[in-house]
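Database export, one record per block. Field names are fixed; values are copied verbatim from the stored entry.
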Amino acid sequence: MRTMKHIKSGALHICLLAIAVIQVFPLFWLLGFSLKDNNEIFGGNIAGLPQNWRFSNYASAFNQANVLQYLLNSILVTAATILITIVLAATAAYAIQRMIWKGRNIAMKGILVGMMVPIHAVLLPLFIVLSKIKLLNTYWALIIPYVAFGLPLAVYLFSSFMVSIPREMEEAAAIDGCNIYKLFFRVMLPLIRPAIATVSIFTFISSWNELMFAVTFINKQEYKTLTVGIMSMVGAYTTKWGEIGAGLMIATVPTVAIYLLLSDQVQNSLVAGAVKG
């Protein structure tokens, strides 16, 4: 019996190790790709380690391809989107789940309908509206749509988490003299930190990697985000693929870093939802 358990455990560890290698390999491949030039890439060494480690690709991406400006624009747009989405979604979920008022269920259903609206269906109407209110080629041309499309899922996640929180905690705080605002900021927000981490990751990934709105609503160079900037690095006649790989690596690192920083909170959120829900 012990031998069979050891065999099963060993087989499980081998399978998990294989899955981990499959998941991590694209990052190592992209890193190697970003350190090559066109001659090496098209010369048959597409998957191997670089023969000459060209760290100058990163310097060229920052200095010549303007990747630093694109990166700062993406950080600004994404950070503003996450902050606004969390504030609006948390307050909306608190009002729907913790307050008693007529029509709150209808309001919740109306918000969740937004999860079924594809971005392609609103691309033209959004372009017309943003053009009329003079918001094209501004950061708000991206922040407002990103927040709008991120709110339904965020409200749903916050609402699902708030349902499991005992109302006695709010009642005790109210007896101690907390008003509605103190109840929200001092009692509710600290309790939903795992849900905030989950919403932050989902919102970050959706806004950081978004391309459709960024290409359509932004034409000026100074407002382009990283995804649009990397796409514009493809030349009409010649393309330096090593520099594009460097830009892709720069765009990938923040996503991995954010997930590693918040993964524990996301796990706590999922475990809490499984146990309490």
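Remark 1: The chain has 13 helices and no strands.
Remark 2: Residues 64-276 form a domain with the MetI-like fold fold (CATH 1.10.3720.10).
End of record.
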